[in-house]
């Protein structure tokens, strides 16, 4: 168990930990939304890693407005350890049920990846039970991969369940979304890739996430997809992301927000696209790293039909999910966020 997990008084979100030691550029670009929005007019975005269960309806509205048309919600650690199997079942059900419905109500196509996260792999009695129920969820509609799995503290238990889930992915013919550790990232990333290859996975079916400048070259050289998380303070800043694309080009690279309950930004993609545009990156390269590459990688699941979202998802806000609507007590859909008066 990691330090943070031992100390229950110090909640520590999975994406909000000590930095990777690579400083973000001090150059800040202060720009109003209306200004950078101009730069990305007509672009559409696919965020392949965002935890919407932790986000609000304001986020959904802002994301849609900024051009995000589809997203992938990986299953992960919810901030405190689950105490029983039922919590896992309810969480997995919400990813293919209520949260997907909620997303659709804001015009965003919602996909997910299913898996046992690395932190909770360390609770072996519970991990065993989770492995038994996972096959019930991975074949459901809209499940585009096994994820996010991999290493956190790089323990023996983490390795055991990582290997088992790689086998599950192979059997189900699903891509794999790999979370790389915050601590000792380089070694953890190398180890994750070596094990995936050892299990006979095709690297073009494996998305290595949370890369940085120290890991990207080996990931790309070995044929894997390299995902980058734009996350304030602890992961990549988007100035650094621009430089990575300048250096390596757009092939097999994808950008995500990994927004969750920590201080994170669900608009990381549109903002990064705007910054890339300002820095002279071509529209085609921007399209690849903020949209198309994620579709190509996770589309191998056979679950992504771009015609569902490429020209916008139609929103039917009077629809219900198991009898429930997101509109409470006669609320009207599409409330203007710019209005001072709240009615
Ligand atoms: Zn995540």
UniProtKB/TrEMBL annotation:
Gene3D superfamilies: Metal-dependent hydrolases
UniProt-annotated stretches for the region Disordered: 1-22
Signal peptide: none
UniProt xrefs under InterPro entries: Metal_Hydrolase, TatD-like, UCP005295
Pfam families linked to this entry: TatD_DNase (PF01026)
SUPFAM superfamilies on file: Metallo-dependent hydrolases
Domain of life (superkingdom): Bacteria
Record GO terms (molecular function): hydrolase activity, acting on ester bonds
Matches recorded under PANTHER family: HYDROLASE TATD
Protein name per its UniProtKB record: TatD DNase family protein
């Amino acid at each position: 168990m990691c330090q943070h997990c031992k100390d229950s008084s110090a909640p520590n979100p999975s994406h909000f930990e000590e930095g990777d030691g690579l400083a973000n550029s001090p150059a800040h670009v202060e720009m109003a939304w209306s200004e950078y929005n101009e730069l990305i007019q007509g672009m559409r975005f696919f965020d392949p890693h965002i935890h919407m269960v932790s986000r609000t309806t304001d986020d959904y509205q802002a994301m849609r407005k900024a051009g995000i048309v589809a997203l992938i919600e990986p299953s992960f650690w919810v901030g405190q350890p689950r105490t029983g199997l039922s919590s896992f079942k309810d969480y997995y059900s919400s990813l293919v049920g209520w949260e997907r419905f909620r997303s659709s109500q804001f015009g965003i196509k919602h996909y997910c990846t299913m898996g046992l996260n690395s932190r909770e792999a360390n609770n072996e009695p519970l991990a065993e039970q989770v492995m038994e129920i996972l096959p019930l969820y991975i074949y459901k509609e809209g499940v585009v991969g096994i994820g996010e799995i991999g290493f956190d503290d790089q323990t023996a238990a983490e390795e055991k369940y990582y290997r088992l889930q790689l086998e599950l992915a192979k059997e189900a013919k699903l891509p794999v979304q790999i979370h790389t550790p915050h601590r000792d990232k380089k070694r953890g990333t190398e180890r994750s890739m070596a094990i995936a290859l050892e299990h006979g996975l095709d690297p073009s079916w494996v998305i290595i996430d949370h890369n940085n400048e120290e890991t990207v070259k080996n990931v790309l050289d070995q044929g894997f997809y390299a995902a980058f998380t734009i996350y304030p303070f602890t992961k990549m800043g988007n100035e650094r992301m621009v430089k990575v694309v300048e250096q390596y080009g757009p092939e097999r690279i994808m950008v995500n927000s990994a927004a969750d309950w920590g201080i994170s930004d669900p608009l990381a993609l549109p903002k990064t696209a705007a910054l890339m545009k300002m820095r002279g990156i071509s529209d085609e390269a921007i399209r690849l790293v903020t949209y198309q590459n994620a579709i190509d990688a996770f589309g191998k699941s056979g679950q992504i039909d771009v015609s569902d979202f490429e020209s916008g998802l139609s929103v039917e806000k009077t629809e219900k999910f198991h009898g429930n609507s997101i509109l409470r007590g006669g609320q009207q859909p599409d409330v203007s966020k710019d209005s001072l008066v709240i009615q």
